Amino acid sequence: AQKVTQAQTEISVVEKEDVTLDCVYETRDTTYYLFWYKQPPSGELVFLIRRNSFDEQNEISGRYSWNFQKSTSSFNFTITASQVVDSAVYFCALSYMDSNYQLIWGAGTKLIIKP
Amino acid sequence: DGGITQSPKYLFRKEGQNVTLSCEQNLNHDAMYWYRQDPGQGLRLIYYSQIVNDFQKGDIAEGYSVSREKKESFPLTVTSAQKNPTAFYLCASSMDRAYYNEQFFGPGTRLTVL
Q: pLDDT tens, B30-57?
């Protein structure tokens, strides 16, 4: 089965702490894409990153970084020096060639950053 | 500015009424999607359209209908056949049908059935 698991339902940290959100995926395809989206309290999902299955380089964008490991089928997201504005629900998603153009979504992780 | 607009932001409906949610995009995207989100849960696909005058059912299409007469517009009708329509509805678009394209989302419509 093709699926995405975000085992952490909710994470709460104090501002300035580092935090990692886990994403584990399952797919039979060798060619696939992984995505992270942020959903702040306003509700609109914001695209953060896309990674294809052939590119295992880690990515860093400011305080955000992503660790893609095919060996463990994981695509984890780390926020360094968290801020209150990072409070949101974060979704991981998977797409693959035979997914009929659909995204397979994880259940999301609610991140609470306390001041 | 390019983007996706959804209206209204909040919508109240009486039981037994049909209601239409608007979704418009000016990104020149071919593909458009409707998702439903229930409190504390992820996104579930209702319908998607890869091109004008064509659309496909997603995982939870029962009780919903759509049309795609124009590239920019993909309205969703929640019919009285939908047993539990109270939810947050999100519209999205992507450049084309390619599976590697990211989706861009509108601000959502929160529907409450009274």
A: 999 999 999 888 899 999 999 999 999 9
Using CA atoms, how far residue A93 sits from B35, B55, B77, B111, in Å, is 14, 22, 26, 25
* Beta-carbon pairs below 8 A across chains A and B: 55
Q: Which of A37, A87, A101 is nearest to B104 (CA)?
A: A37
Question: For residue A96, what are its two tokens?
Answer: 């693959």
Q: B41, B99, B103: best mutation site toward chain A, by most A Cβ within 10 Å? A: B99
Which of helix, strand or coil describes residue A84? Answer: helix
Closest CA to A35 of A64, A77, A7: A77
Subunit contact B92:A45, Cβ cutoff 8 A:
yes
Query: Measured between CA atoms, how close is A18 to chain B, in angstroms?
Result: 24
Q: Which residue has the higher pLDDT, B73 or A59?
A: B73
**Residue A54 touches chain B, beta carbons under 8 Å:** no
The first and second tokens of residue A76, run together, are 């984890």
pLDDT in tens, B60-114: 999 999 999 999 999 999 998 888 999 999 999 999 877 788 899 999 999 999 8
Q: Is A50 in contact with B48 (Cβ distance < 8 A)?
A: no
> Burial of A60 by CB count in 10 Å (0-12 exposed, 13-18 middle, 19+ buried)?
exposed
In whole angstroms, what separates CA B83 from the centre of its chain? 17
Q: Do B90 and A45 touch (CB under 8 A)?
A: yes
- The per-residue pLDDT for B20 is 96
